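Pilot study result, target chain (285 residues):
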Amino acid sequence: MTASFRHRIQSAGLSAVRTVFGGINLDGGAAFAAAVGRGLSPALRKRAMANLALALPDISDTERRHIISGMADNLARTAVEYLHLAELRDDPDRITITGEDHLQAARAAGRGAILVTGHLGNWETVRAACARLDWPAAIIYRRFNDAPFDAEARRAMAVLDAPILHKGKRGTLGLLRHIRKGGAAMILCDQRFNGAPMLPFFGHPAKTALAPAEIAHEYGAALLPVRGIRRGRSSRFDVTFDAPLIPESGDTAALDTMREVNLRLESWIRETPEQYFWLHNRWRR
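Predicted structure:
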């Protein structure tokens, strides 16, 4: 399959999601999408099984297949939830927030906040929670290869009324300006980052970007680990802001801080492995 054809398929798929699920209520649409997603989970198994074998070597293949089915369920629900971010923000029954005081303390300090998380649960519920608390968080993400698909994704995310930034020089400058003005920004830290140092993740070396720790140190921003975990098979979530990580001084401060971020992510994933995106090329084979 050529890249251009794959991109057209992605765009058509996103258009179909918007058309089919845009007019269905959140719970009904998410449940229907999840049923479809679970049925398609065998197509996702090759890389996911390899990653699970590295990360969780002590579980059986049957357990891994069960996790992959849950991952497909979670991803399908998340895709539909992108169409309902305003509802997730506004309905207090959809998101329960814990650790709000950590976020509010960072806001009161006026030096901005870096929210570090991963592709676990529905990460956009973190930004929905921030928007509900009247401190919308910017997001920096890798641009989708297909321009129409990327534009649709940006439109969906923009409902939370915060900057949507592409990874790269321009996006990084925008992120720095936003933090310098005392804003909050969410960074997904669990993807492979070329040129980054190797730090342990599930006991294996993984290229890990140091930018979150470096930016927090440079601007005095709070570095807050946060997660948005799905409750069972529903579109209800627990968003938890942890106490800020305090970087140590010295030449290895950023390395040490991001090593702790990896450990935090790993502990969350172990609690709900079926809610993690096991398809990243995270480890060098």
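One observation from the pilot: DSSP finds eleven helices and nine strands in the chain. A full batch analysis is planned for the follow-on phase.
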